[in-house]
Amino acid sequence: MKKGITIDEKYDPAMKITTQAEADAYFEECVQEIMAWGKTREQAESVEKQNLGYYAGYYNEETRLRVERLFRCSHPIFGAAANGIPSAEEAFAAGVKMANQASQTRE
Fold it and tell me: Could you tell me if residue 2 is inside a domain?
């Protein structure tokens, strides 16, 4: 994976992956990139699973379900797509809750 790429350049290819072998290889490449920044494997895997789950949230339900299955991840705010896609109101409420939690940790 080349350095200095955008989020879209990094995660859009993952949204098109359809096999477990491709997903495993792509995930390993992403993890190795984060580890090169000094993170442990555990930290790198956590970051990548959160990022993949979040990015998949911008796609349709079919893509999100496939990505979550192949990469063993879920959306860090909304949870697994298999549990249902949040309504606009639920998504807004989750965002407010996350913002409130973030502001409390800064105090």
Answer: no
